[in-house]
C-alpha cells in the first residue's frame, strides 16, 4: 500500500547513529514501588518457548549478557516458559551481574507433565512458585512478580494480599498484573500497589487504549509493559504467508492471525511501516517499537529476540526522534487499516480481559 501522505511529508526525522548502548531510562510504578529501567527491556521467552527453534544455551546466555553490556537492565521471564527452562536459562545468564539488573517473572498456572495445565492463583501456589522461581533465577528476591493470568476462582484481593506478604518477607520487591481489566487493577492496587501491568499492545492491538487500562495506569501511577510489541515478529516484515512455523515449539502456528490468509490480509501494515521507515532510515521493527515508546513515558516494551543483530536494531530505537506531525500522518494512515484474524485461540482468549 502506498501512503502518499507520508511520502509527501517533508520533515525528515532525526536518528542518531545506531546505538551500541542504551542509556535512556524510564520509570515503572510509583513511590516505594517504582522501578527505574532501561527504556527497552528484553523478553527472554522466545529463547526457550513458543518462538520456534531453540538456540543453543550458550548462544542465549551470550545474548542476554550482550543486552546487559548494551545497557539493558530489565529482563522478563515466567515459570511457564519452557516450562521452567527459561527461568533456569535467565538465572544462569544474569548471575554475574544480578545486583545490577531487574528480573521479572510470573505465576498463575498449574504445570502438569511439563505442560501448562489451567489457572491457579491460590495463595499456596503463588508461594510455591515464588520459592521455586527464586531458586531457578539464582536470587534471593524477585524484583517484579506478575500474576500471568487471573484465576476467576480466586479473588484478586487474595492474590494481591499474598504478594504483599511475600514483599513483607523480602522474597518479592514489586507486584505486577498481566491481561487484566481496569476493575481488577483497581481492586488489586488497593491492597498492594501495582508497579506494572503487562499486556499485549502494539500497533495491531491497542485494546488497552480503548478499554481504559492505559488511562487507569496513568491515573494510579502504574507502569505499562507491552508484551509481543512486534506482534510476535509479524511487524518486522520478516514473516509472510509462506512462512512455515516450527509447530513443535511455536504457538504462532495455531494463532488465527498467523494463518496465511490473515498474514496476506494484514500486509498493508507492513507496507505502511516499510514506507514510513524507508524515509527515515528505520526498519519496520524500529518504527513499531518507536510507536509504542511515543505513546506514554511510562511504557517499557520487552521485545523478544534470539539474535544479537536484532537486539542491537531494537535497542537503537531509544535514540530515534520522530516529529509529532510525522506521527500524526502515520496514525492517520494506520487508522485506515483493519486487522484480520484473532490474536488468540478460543482457550487463550477466555483467559484475557483485554
Ligand atoms: N504476559 C504475557 O502473557 C506474555 C505473552 C507473550 C510474551 N510475553 C513476553 O513478551 C516478550 C516478547 O514477546 P514475543 O516474543 O511474543 O513477541 P515480540 O517481541 O513481538 O516478537 C518476537 C519475535 O520477533 C522477532 N524479532 C525481534 N526483533 C526482530 C528484528 N529486529 N527483526 C526481525 N525480527 C525480530 C523474533 O525473532 P528472532 O529471534 O529471529 O529475532 C521473535 O520471533 C516475551 O519474551 C515474553 O517475555 C508475555
UniProtKB/TrEMBL annotation:
Residue intervals of the NADP-dependent oxidoreductase domain: 40-333
Keyword 4Fe-4S: no
UniProt region (Disordered), positions on chain: 1-24
Any matching Pfam family: Aldo_ket_red
InterPro entries reported in the protein's UniProt record: Aldo-Keto_reductase, NAD(P)_OxRdtase_dom_sf, NADP_OxRdtase_dom
Domain of life (superkingdom): Bacteria
CDD domains: AKR_AKR13C1_2
Alphabetic keyword roster: Oxidoreductase
Ranges of biased composition (kind: Polar residues): 11-22
Name of protein: Aldo/keto reductase
Species, as recorded: Algoriphagus oliviformis
Lineage: Bacteria, Pseudomonadati, Bacteroidota, Cytophagia, Cytophagales
Amino acid at each position: 500500500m502506498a501512503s502518499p501522505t507520508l511520502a509527501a511529508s517533508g520533515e525528515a526525522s532525526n536518528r542518531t547513529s545506531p546505538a551500541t548502548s542504551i542509556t535512556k531510562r524510564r520509570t515503572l510504578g510509583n513511590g516505594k514501588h517504582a522501578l527505574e529501567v532501561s527504556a527497552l527491556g528484553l523478553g527472554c521467552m522466545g529463547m526457550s518457548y513458543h518462538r520456534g527453534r531453540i538456540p543453543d544455551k550458550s548462544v542465549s546466555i551470550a545474548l542476554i549478557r550482550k543486552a546487559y553490556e548494551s545497557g539493558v537492565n530489565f529482563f522478563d521471564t515466567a515459570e511457564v516458559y519452557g516450562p521452567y527452562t527459561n527461568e533456569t536459562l535467565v538465572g544462569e545468564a544474569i548471575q554475574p551481574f544480578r545486583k545490577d539488573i531487574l528480573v521479572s517473572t510470573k505465576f498463575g498456572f498449574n504445570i502438569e507433565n511439563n505442560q501448562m495445565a489451567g489457572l491457579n492463583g491460590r495463595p499456596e501456589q503463588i508461594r510455591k512458585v515464588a520459592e521455586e522461581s527464586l531458586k531457578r533465577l539464582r536470587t534471593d528476591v524477585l524484583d517484579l512478580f506478575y500474576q500471568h493470568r487471573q484465576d476467576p476462582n480466586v479473588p484478586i484481593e487474595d492474590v494481591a494480599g499474598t504478594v504483599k506478604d511475600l514483599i513483607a518477607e523480602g522474597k518479592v520487591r514489586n507486584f505486577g498484573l498481566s491481561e487484566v481489566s481496569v476493575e481488577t487493577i483497581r481492586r488489586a492496587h488497593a491492597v498492594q500497589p501495582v508497579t506494572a501491568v503487562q499486556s499485549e499492545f502494539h500497533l495491531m492491538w491497542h485494546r488497552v487504549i480503548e478499554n481504559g487500562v492505559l488511562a487507569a495506569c496513568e491515573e494510579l501511577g502504574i507502569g505499562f509493559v507491552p508484551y509481543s510489541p512486534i506482534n510476535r515478529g509479524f511487524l518486522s516484515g520478516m514473516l509472510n504467508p509462506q512462512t512455515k512455523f516450527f509447530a513443535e515449539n511455536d504457538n504462532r502456528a495455531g494463532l488465527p492471525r498467523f494463518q496465511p490468509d490473515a498474514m496476506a490480509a494484514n500486509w498493508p501494515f507492513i507496507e505502511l511501516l516499510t514506507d514510513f521507515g524507508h524515509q527515515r532510515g528505520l526498519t519496520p521493527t524500529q518504527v513499531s517499537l518507536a510507536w509504542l515508546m511515543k505513546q506514554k513515558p511510562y511504557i517499557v516494551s520487552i521485545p523478544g529476540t534470539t539474535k544479537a543483530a536484532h537486539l542491537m536494531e531494537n535497542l537503537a530505537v531509544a535514540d530515534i526522534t520522530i516529529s509529532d506531525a510525522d506521527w500524526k500522518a502515520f496514525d492517520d494512515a494506520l487508522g485506515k487499516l483493519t486487522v484480520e484474524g484473532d490474536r488468540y485461540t478460543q482457550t487463550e482468549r477466555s483467559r484475557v480481559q483485554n
